């Protein structure tokens, strides 16, 4: 019983493949007649075929038309510039102290509660 089902399934599968290939042949099959015709082309005809050239877009080929491309600067160049100028973008410990750090704990809590109350009013 299983053998007959398997045979029917395989037969149906083969029929579906054949039907599919008839409706949508492979590209190789579509151009097989043209490939056969190429065997009759003479050597002179082959040499007379023009070169394709550059198939890219004209804007890509012309360097004067395209805008400059962005290339990120390496970290070594940035580090060298920082070392030469003597300026740094880091804060000292004294600069890191904010106004809220200057309050004592009770004042800090009162400040935070009032700040949160103001933020709640804005919503």
TrEMBL record:
InterPro entries tied to this protein: PRP1_N
Residues annotated as transmembrane: none
Disordered: region residues: 49-72
Signal sequence annotation: none
Coiled coil feature spans: 3-37
Record-level GO BP terms: mRNA splicing, via spliceosome
Keyword Coiled coil tagged: yes
Record keywords: Coiled coil
Organism this protein belongs to: Geodia barretti
Name the UniProt record assigns to this protein: Pre-mRNA-processing factor 6
Record field: compositional bias (Basic and acidic residues): 53-69
Residues in PRP1 splicing factor N-terminal domain copies: 1-58
Pfam families: PRP1_N (PF06424)
